Predict the structure.
Amino acid sequence: MDETRTHAHSAPTRLRDASRRLPRWWPLPLCIGLGLAGGAGYGVVTPPQYSATSYVIVVPQHSDSSTALGFAQAYGRVITGSAVLTGAQEAAGVPVSALRTSVQAATSPDAPMIAITGTGSQAGTAARIANAVANSLAATGNQNAANTGVRLLLFSPAATPSTPVSPSTSLSAAVGASAGGLLGALILLVRPGGRGRREAGHAAVPAPAQGIHPTVKEMA
């Protein structure tokens, strides 16, 4: 029993002694290593994402350019509507639910132009989505050309991208290492001082002296 208690008591003591022998800045390289490994792992398991953009221009028929600019803003807001996406799903080869999360539109305040960006895990898929939605938008808008006075034309089709837009594995690892280094530095700032600093603090406080107080008889 006594021997078991001695071993159980000495184990925490050895751990404390080992932690005291470590340099005070040990959390910094540890956090950098963990961040590097996490960033590299994320870059490996995450599939690349590609992006392609097509452009649709709004052309006035019997109106001025300001009217075309206003309709470009309006058509840019209905890109993810059911009418446009339903007409694009067959050419894109993607269901409407997936198209809604794979398409973004942007308009310019100075030109009647609509940029339609498609994203996908493959380069060809991204370009196909962008062009299918652009053609569907033009067809949907031109059905009402007699009433709106403007026509929509595919100004520039999307080309198949050659490189992904998602970060590479090396970039993800670098970002993870930077985040880990920042976390390690914060830990160093908030953790208490090392053993030497605590011992110095204890040494600065003198122990009360004994045997120097005068007795009652001496004071009398």
